[in-house]
Amino acid sequence: MAHIASRLKEVKMEEIQDITSDMIDKLRKLNINSVYQLAVQIPSELAFEISDSSIDIESAARLVGNARKILTENDLLSKEFSTANDMLEKRNEISRYSTGSSNFDTFLDGGFQTQAVTEIAGEFGSGKSQICQTLCAAAITLMENDRLVENATQKPTESIIFIDTENTFKANRIHQIAEQKDLDPEDILKRIYHCNIYSSEQLEVLIDELPKFIEQYNARIVIIDSIISLHRAEFSGRGTLVERQQKLGRMLNKLRRYAEVYNVAVVITNQVVSYSDGTSGLDYMKAAGGNIVAHGSTYRIFLRKSGKNRVATMEDSPCQPYQRVKFAISESGIQDVSSYKTEESESAW
């Protein structure tokens, strides 16, 4: 699939069937400035936000449908009905971004995948943020290589969006990882766009506006660390559970559509909850968010501590078996255990 920057120039809002200049003005007031941004809208929300008697939910659905139709006609989006052979060819458009650990990349079938939402769940200290920050350093190198290969099109610099809800992002840590990997830390840090989020409402608004920033920064990866922490803190108790789950479901639904339309890799981290099986008296951990988060993710990875190392388990995948991989965390980010230290090592990580 062509990169975002080159694709955006190919289709204009005025080309959408039955759209008027007045409607384009109304959409732009809502910061919907491209065919792609319109194509990922939810019709009921769009009709509500326009708040105009001239457009109801049915009209909004037709408008969004026409936006998706023109992207389909220009081979920028999958058809409503495609043959399995077409879908197989579409798999060739998917990119994968390395973590820098060969074993972990093999575990991911090559790396974090575009057109997918990958969830990484685990307890505190299990390595979720370390994976995300290692990905920032390693993936940008791949983006640079892709840009050099396709230099004839003069595509702008690609980037990563890092949405931080737990204050886990550390620029100095990414600088350290890059140095250890003999990469240019200054170039890498300039291509990571970080945003601190302090409330669940702020996170929901940002996800609504995310298409604008994906286009503006030509982002190839969107990281949210974490997707659930603010909602767990603000919606406590059974009385708020339904509302919380509805909000989480809405955010994940949008993220899945962004991943498909913009061909980006969406990586989210998740917390865990403890529970007892009621028979053995032992406590177990599972990913927070229940079935809403489970069904909202394409890939589900669960992390746990194993001595001074970590173990990642592929709990759900549309095309990979249930499997595990052990990895270590060092000054250069996540690494293969065999190439770094054993469980008996004295690593500070």
How do the helices and strands line up, and which of them pair or pack?
Blueprint lengths: L3 H5 L12 H9 L5 H5 L3 H8 L6 H17 L10 H7 L5 E2 L4 H6 L4 E2 L2 E7 L5 H22 L9 E6 L6 H10 L4 H6 L1 E5 L3 H17 L2 E7 L3 H6 L6 H22 L2 E6 L1 E5 L6 E5 L2 H7 L2 E8 L2 E8 L7 E7 L2 E4 L13
Parallel strand pairs: 3-7, 3-10, 4-5, 4-6, 6-7
Antiparallel strand pairs: 1-2, 8-9, 10-11, 11-12, 12-13
Give structural notes.
This protein has 2 domains: 4-73, DNA polymerase, domain 1 (Orthogonal Bundle), CATH 1.10.150; 94-339, P-loop containing nucleotide triphosphate hydrolases (Rossmann fold), CATH 3.40.50.300. The chain has 14 helices and 13 strands. The protein has helices spanning 4-8, 21-29, 35-39, 43-50, 57-73, 84-90, 102-107, 128-149, 171-180, 185-190, 200-216, 229-234, 241-262, 290-296, and strands at residues 96-97, 112-113, 116-122, 159-164, 192-196, 219-225, 265-270, 272-276, 283-287, 299-306, 309-316, 324-330, 333-336. A hairpin with a 2-residue loop joins strand 10 (299-306) and strand 11 (309-316). Helix 4 crosses helix 5, helix 11 packs parallel to helix 13 (241-262) and helix 13 (241-262) packs parallel to helix 14 (290-296). The model is unreliable at 148-153 and 340-348 (pLDDT under 50).
Characteristics of this structure?
single chain; 349 residues; alpha/beta; DNA polymerase, domain 1; Rossmann fold; 2 domains; 9-stranded mixed β-sheet; two-stranded antiparallel ribbon; 14 helices; 13 strands; globular
Sketch the topology as an H/E string, one letter per element. HHHHHHEHEEHEHHEHEHHEEEHEEEE
Using the coordinates shown, work out and report the CATH topology of the largest domain.
Rossmann fold
CATH architecture level-2 label of the largest domain = 3-Layer(aba) Sandwich
Summarize the amount of helix as a percent range.
40-55%
CATH first level of the largest domain: Alpha Beta
**Per DSSP, what share of the residues sits in E-state strands of 2 or more residues?**
15-25%
The separation of the N and C termini measures 39 Å
Q: How many individual β-strands? A: 13
Query: What is the domain total for the residues?
Result: 2
CATH superfamily of the largest domain: P-loop containing nucleotide triphosphate hydrolases
- Number of H- or I-type helical stretches: 14
- Can you give the mean pLDDT? 85
Parts with pLDDT < 50 across at least 5 consecutive residues: 148-153, 340-348
Strand order of the largest sheet: 5-4-6-7-3-10-11-12-13
Give the biggest beta sheet: 9 strands, mixed
Gross morphology: globular
Supply the helix-strand structural class.
alpha/beta
Radius of gyration from the CA trace?
21 Å
